[in-house]
Amino acid sequence: xxxxxxxxxxxxxxxxxxxxxxxxxxxxxxxxxxxxxxxxxxxxxxxxxxxxxxxxxxxxxxxxxxxxxxxxxxxxxxxxxxxxxxxxxxxxxxxxxxxxxxxxxxxxxxxxxxxxxxxxxxxxxxxxxxxxxxxxxxxxxxxxxxxxxxxxxxxxxxxxxxxxxxxxxxxxxxxxxxxxxxxxxxxxxxxxxxxxxxxxxxxxxxxxxxxxxxxxxxxxxxxxxxxxxxxxxxxxxxxxxxxxxxxxxxxxxxxxxxxxxxxxxxxxxxxxxxxxxxxxxxxxxxxxxxxxxxxxxxxxxxxxxxxxxxxxxxxxxxxxxxxxxxxxxxxxxxxxxxxxxxxxxxxxxxxxxxxxxxxxxxxxxxxxxxxxxxxxxxxxxxxxxxxxxxxxxxxxxxxxxxxxxxxxxxxxxxxxxxxxxxxxxxxxxxx
RNA sequence: GGAGGGAUGACAGAGCGGCCGAAUGUACCGGUCUUGAAAACCGGCGUGGGCUUGCCCACCGUGGGUUCAAAUCCCACUCCCUCCGCCA
Length: 431
Known about the structure:
Layout: H1 4-9, H2 11-19, H3 25-64, H4 68-105, E1 124-129, H5 150-157, H6 162-169, H7 178-195, E2 200-202, E3 207-209, H8 210-216, E4 228-229, E5 234-236, H9 241-246, E6 252-254, E7 260-269, E8 288-298, H10 303-320, E9 325-329, E10 341-349, E11 354-363, H11 367-372, E12 375-377, E13 383-385, E14 387-395, H12 396-406, E15 414-415, E16 429-430
Parallel strand pairs: 2-7, 6-12
Antiparallel strand pairs: 1-9, 3-5, 4-5, 7-8, 8-14, 9-10, 10-11, 11-14, 12-13, 15-16
Helix pairs in contact: 2-3, 3-4, 5-12
The protein binds one RNA strand of 88 nucleotides through helix 3 and helix 4.
């Protein structure tokens, strides 16, 4: 949620920033209007409330002096004011609710670094990396045997069974087998093993309360993309970011605790409501996948460094796996609701000849912290909202696809990168 | 799932209709003392909101209710603890 105080003080700045994301000034003005209306009503109901309190205090005083007559007449007067107060309060609350609803629908202000653009085609490529690039090698020419989609290799080697996944849970649910399953486990281990030194490992629940989903900005806006378990009021999390961001919800942290860096592997659930039929073959787009997330609560001053750290770790992992990738600055049109600045990593997967998004590294400024009410006490005793950041290291389904395609050999087997050998008890080969 | 007990400020813990936003202790911050530190003593010390910046309002798990007045009484719910049941 954006800062209402900032909206009051510099409405033009907010209007201009949100206009870059396609938010009309009308919806910003609606919020300003509701805020003004709310404050007027609030003043009136608080005034009446103060009056009731004062009269009630006088009733108590009269009673103590056994002045029943005065007490009775003051009670009657207080009751009358109380009736007015109730009307005023209900009106105030109704406007407060509308104000909150509107405010929750406003996205975060994009950072200056974010390029303007309408949709993902306007994202700006920052750099590319591929194995051997540092020694001057050109972007790889992939051989014919690498130009085989992972779902074909998956069936041929018995490591991926999309049909069984569909049989069990419907389309866009994957079932990995044998070495394919082990590969998934190996990737989680590799990633977590590399990052537990700097980031505390967490195993959060994967079902979350509405409140928890609100904090990250996934609700109310993206309800259609979430799986809901209505009977119990729970939602399946779309990313580990959800529980991690709410871990300290409502708390005041001490500055010494910051940055508080966490990592978690979770299953992620997405309905992909608007994505029917688009890039949905094999592992390209799933309703459920696994992902390791890096997350941090920090001070505004620490945010840049942490963003760089998370991005560096994600890139480091891709390099270690020897996958070609590119780094994109998301444009205003593709930026997530809560984010102020996001960098995406996409791996090149030769079998499907596509760049696949495997990581998003985002800085939310205090947008999520304001919703989640996570603050910290500075050394001077004052209190401020924390900043939150997160990034994936990485989304495994697509990395799995890229690995199986990139490392497919002429004989149809897959020799995985040596970094995975320890997790295969020897040479990591799928055959 | 059943039966009991509980939820109050950073923590512990009083209050159980009327100057209670809340005693007290600890922690924390400032000061005195000290070569320095500790101890002792003195002072300060919740969060958010509104406006006429001095005042007002809200918050004692959450949501309702009773009352002139609710941390305090009533109802529902949530969570935690103990015991029983079930269970990977």
